[in-house]
Specification:
Blueprint: E1 7-9, E2 12-14, E3 19-24, E4 29-35, H1 39-58, H2 61-77, H3 79-90, H4 94-112, E5 119-123, E6 127-135, E7 138-142, H5 150-161, E8 165-169, H6 176-185, E9 194-196, H7 203-208, E10 215-219, H8 222-232, E11 238-242, E12 247-251, H9 257-269, E13 279-285, H10 289-300, H11 321-336, E14 340-343, E15 359-362, H12 369-372, E16 379-385, H13 388-396, E17 400-401, E18 403-407, H14 411-418, E19 425-428, E20 440-441, E21 443-444, E22 447-448, E23 450-451, H15 453-458, E24 461-469
Bound molecules: nicotinamide-adenine-dinucleotide.
Nicotinamide-adenine-dinucleotide binds at residues 142-146, 151, 169, 171-172, 204-205, 208, 219-221, 224, 227-228, 242-245, 276, 374, 376, 402, 442, 447.
């Protein structure tokens, strides 16, 4: 059977013998079929990327930048179609989907403006030595299902501006937006510069172990990240891994409760909690615990959960059944342990779609699975503290180190607390502010390497020093 959506390999749109179903998480029904890439097709894609590499890397960077800007314009031109497609496969509301498409375009134009540094190490009568950064070759990019568009461009934009070619694999749960974008962009980039393949669980390991791929840029869970790193070791591929998180928010007693209650709600529940940098543990000072949690619960009751394609929906479903069952497991366990639900906790499992109501759990123990692990869904433990040293210790007591936040009207105090958190990013009085020019990295088991910013761009290069001995007597 020929799949309705096609892969992009060497500039050609290609189907496959068999296909995969893609489910709309708001209905649980099949939405479309996508190709199931064979090993031979993957080899073709890697060959196409390899063949395209010399011309692409030799192209003046200004011309590559123009291609990225052209790609951004294509995304913006097609944003209405792309946002609907993204909502249908991911579940998020239309506004959020549109934000993601626009952010994708912004990442392209921002990286188009970035230039790789050249450092002059020595310029003496004897010698001139320069260090520059050259592209790696073929990059394998592997993306998750929570932000199927923008997280692709976190990889595509720096990889291509630096002069690499790309082999992209979206999540099998959310491949449609990536495939449609590839189709739209097939006239923008020369054949082989951008290749997109979709397939089953064996496709990822084929990519990470492929001998002719030079680097893997992976975003996904910590468990898969470990497998990716082990597999990439075979030919010493470079890796950038953006993995899971268990972000703590520390809320000091001097906050303005009516202002922070909605902000804290969205910190935890945006995208139905399916964000690596969602607040997943909320530590609230004992002096304001009751009043603030009441305000968050009251706000939660005003938020409409439903099909993302319907007007007024603010939170969509869980993206896939596997994840839905995982989140149900956290709710069940909380109930069995006698934890108190401040709101939520009742799931209508007979209703269509993978919907879980906003669920807030009152002060569960620090060693409960809900506090230690990343549920990646709309369930939040709120926790009480009364001592700053103790809350910093509790926040840092995690194998994760992605991000965190501090909430206080005393910015000096907040910055002092922020500096003590063992995470790649700490926000004060906000969360999830990300920018193409700002480095984003996971400490501990939340990642290896950096995305975004100059540090992130350099991850798509190798360092080369050229040292010239000047002729004798040169001035
Ligand atoms: P996942 O690890 O299950 O899958 C991610 C991708 O890896 C998918 O494309 C999947 O098909 C592929 N994959 C699965 N097994 C593989 C293997 N053995 N080798 C190579 N590829 C393989 O993650 P997910 O469930 O799609 O995403 C949710 C996770 O991603 C959460 O833990 C979340 O915190 C994390 N995440 C991290 C960031 C970040 O920037 N740090 C951003 C978004 C999501």
């Amino acid at each position: 059977m020929t799949a309705a959506y096609k892969m992009l390999i060497g500039g050609e749109r290609v189907g496959s013998e068999t296909s995969l179903d893609v489910i709309n998480p708001a209905t649980g029904k099949v939405l479309a079929h996508v190709p199931d890439c064979s090993r031979e097709q993957l080899d073709q894609a890697v060959r196409a990327a390899r063949q395209a590499f010399p011309a692409w890397k030799s192209m003046p960077i200004e011309q590559r930048a123009d291609k990225l800007r052209e790609a951004a314009a294509v995304l913006v031109e097609n944003k209405d179609e792309l946002k609907r497609l993204l909502t249908s496969e991911q579940g998020k509301p239309h506004d959020e989907a549109e934000f993601e498409i626009m952010a994708s375009a912004y990442w392209l134009t921002s990286f188009a403006d970035m230039r790789l540094p050249v450092v002059v190490n020595e310029d003496t009568p004897e010698r001139r030595s320069e260090t520059r950064h050259v592209p790696l070759g073929v990059v394998g990019a592997i993306a998750p299902w929570n932000f199927p568009a923008v997280l692709v461009y976190w990889k595509l934009a720096p990889a291509l501006i630096a002069g690499n070619t790309l082999m992209l694999k979206p999540s099998p749960f959310t491949p449609l937006t990536a495939l449609r974008m590839a189709e739209l962009l097939s006239d923008v980039f020369p054949p082989g510069v951008l290749n997109v393949v979709t397939g089953r669980d064996d496709l990822g390991p084929w990519i990470t172990s492929h001998p002719d791929i030079d680097k893997i840029s992976f975003t996904g869970s910590t468990a898969t990240g470990r497998r990716v790193m082990a597999s990439a070791a075979a030919n010493l591929k470079k890796v950038t891994l953006e993995l899971g998180g268990n972000d703590a928010a520390i809320v000091m007693p001097d906050v303005d409760i009516p202002t922070v209650a909605p902000a804290l709600f969205w910190a935890a529940f945006r995208n139905s909690g399916q964000i690596c940098i969602a607040t997943k543990r909320m530590y609230i000072h004992a002096d304001i615990y009751d009043e603030l949690t009441r305000a968050i619960v009251d706000y939660a009751k005003t938020v409409k959960v439903g099909d993302g394609s319907e007007q007024g929906t603010m939170l969509g479903p869980i993206q896939n059944r596997q994840q839905y069952e995982r989140v149900l497991g956290f709710i069940e366990e909380a109930r069995e342990n006698g934890f108190r639900f401040m709101t939520g906790g009742e799931v209508d499992q007979d209703a269509p779609g993978y919907f879980i109501p906003v669920t807030i759990v009152d002060n569960p123990p620090d060693d409960s699975r809900l506090v230690r692990e990343e549920p990646f869904g709309p369930i939040l433990p709120v926790l009480k503290f009364d001592d700053v040293d103790d809350v910093v210790r509790r926040a840092n007591d995690s194998e994760y180190g992605l991000a965190g936040s501090v909430w206080s009207s005393d910015l000096e105090q907040a910055q002092a607390i922020a500096a003590r958190l063992e995470t790649g990013t700490v926000w004060i009085n906000e969360v999830q502010h990300l920018a193409p020019g700002t480095a984003f990295a996971g400490h501990k088991q939340s990642g290896v390497g950096v995305e975004n910013g100059m540090d992130g761009l350099l991850e798509y290069t190798v360092t080369q020093t050229i040292s010239v001995k000047k002729p004798d007597g040169a001035a």
